[in-house]
Write a structure and sequence with these properties.
By secondary structure, the protein is an alpha/beta fold. Helix content is about 40%, strand content about 25%. It has 9 helices and 10 strands. The strands form 2 sheets. Strands 6-7-8-3-9-10 form a 6-stranded mixed β-sheet, with helices on both faces. Helix 3 runs parallel beside helix 5 and helix 4 packs across helix 5. The longest helix is centred in the last third of the chain and has 16 residues. The radius of gyration is 18 Å and the shape is globular.
Length: about 250
């Protein structure tokens, strides 16, 4: 394994007008590492993720993906970089008028210029990986929320990303459907995918994360192994937050 991080966030700042959301964020994510970001609502967690692929434009700092600074370069460079950063949102963002298979092949054909045959083959491989190959011809409206989220994960994976970002991937799901999505994420970790996850699934963080980052007020307050953060947080802010959130 190289010593170079797969994703490095350097002195990241984000302001909306006079409101500073992120304040000098520094974070490294190693290849194959699952880093879990927790913290109260409004602490800047989702904004941090969205800055990592410039869905939100940082106000300052650098984002380095596999050794390449994505804050420099042309719009074409940015478009290519975004293909290497998969993102799964709270909402599933599937095209309702397209089948599951079409949802997973569309970006492959348009962005990667894959042939229909190659895109279909890759889509079926990814759908098999999330347990939904048998739903390839179904429409999104025929799927449960958990199934739709797993299709969204398959769609992101089909583009061969270097890093996967998950922004509250289970918060819109009924409790009984959460497990199927977390199982897919756990399988991705086992296969070596680099992942940065924002979620309130504390039990999953304890079990699967390599490192937990606690954010509050737009800063990283503390970070460390899950057992350290959950069992022996160093700061009053982390202790107060975790006393109210049980996983």
């Amino acid at each position: 394994m190289t010593n170079r991080p797969m994703l490095e966030i350097v002195s990241l700042q984000k302001r909306f007008g006079d409101n500073q959301i992120l304040r000098d964020i520094n974070l490294k994510v190693a290849k194959g590492e699952l880093v879990f970001v927790i913290g109260p609502s409004g602490s800047g967690k989702s904004t941090l993720l969205r800055c990592c692929n410039r869905l939100e434009e940082p106000s300052g700092g650098d984002i380095v993906l596999d050794g390449r600074n994505i804050m420099s370069g042309t719009s074409r460079d940015l478009a290519q970089m975004r293909l290497k950063v998969g993102m799964v949102f709270q909402g599933f963002h599937l095209y309702p008028h397209m089948s599951v298979l079409k949802n997973v092949t569309l970006a492959q054909c348009k962005a990667l210029k894959r042939s229909t045959a190659d895109a279909n083959a890759r889509a079926m491989e990814m759908l098999e990986g999330v347990g939904l190959a048998h739903k390839a011809e179904a429409m999104p409206s025929e799927l449960s929320g958990g199934q739709q989220q797993r299709v969204a994960i398959a769609r992101a994976l089909a583009l061969d990303p270097l890093v996967m970002l998950f922004d509250e991937p289970t918060s819109a799901l009924d409790p009984e459907l959460v497990g199927s999505v977390l199982a897919v994420m756990k399988d991705l970790k086992a296969k070596g995918m680099t992942m940065l996850v924002v979620s309130h699934e504390m039990g999953f963080a304890r079990e699967a994360a390599d490192r937990v980052v606690f954010m509050d007020g737009g800063v990283i307050v503390e970070e460390g192994p899950p057992e350290e953060i959950f069992s022996n947080p160093k700061t009053d802010r982390a202790r107060s937050f975790l006393s109210r959130v049980r996983g």
